[in-house]
């Protein structure tokens, strides 16, 4: 039996006591909602059972474990990010749009992003994302090995920034404000003798705060490097 799949005969099609007909999609919906409201610790079978109005053990008819469910939730985020995505002939534009879609989706679900970013879901949406990204790089002229290596660098960069920005967004507002303010306040007061480079750029250090486009800059640097490394197009006769 493939990992992450529960046989259909084990799945409940009768309504629960609360009148709910369970499905994998409904369970993932509720899991996303619970984590969004209460944080990662809410991803438990007990809380899911309460939210769904069913015995917690019923969840195991659809998922082998809470980790199996987490992978399904992570795959849902990938699916949301790719919904309606149809890259054109410009492979650089395609990668750029793909990156922006992933980043936006993770910021829309900041409390699940850090849990999902580093997992391999082994599910349909992830298969499509990897196939699409590698396809764009092969369209650029990279051979098979180079396309895989460059896609790994691309997606790890995007997911890393997405998870970092989402984690910052998930902070309590006062903590987020204090972290951002530190670049304009605490860093301005460091001794010049000990930190001469910080003193030299102190007026620019607020750019280190969140929301100043670190993701955009990193993405454009990476895309520029990929474009520079891409094999020259062959002229067809």
TrEMBL record:
Residues 44-63 bind DNA. Residues 21-81 form the HTH tetR-type domain. It holds the Pfam family TetR_N. SUPFAM superfamilies: Homeodomain-like, Tetracyclin repressor-like, C-terminal domain. InterPro entries: Homeodomain-like_sf, HTH-type_TetR-like_transc_reg, HTH_TetR, Repressor_TetR_C, Tet_transcr_reg_TetR-rel_C_sf. PROSITE patterns: HTH_TETR_2 (PS50977). The keyword Translocase does not apply. GO terms for biological process: negative regulation of DNA-templated transcription. Keywords: DNA-binding, Transcription, Transcription regulation. GO terms for molecular function: DNA-binding transcription factor activity; transcription cis-regulatory region binding. This is TetR family transcriptional regulator. It comes from Streptomyces boluensis.
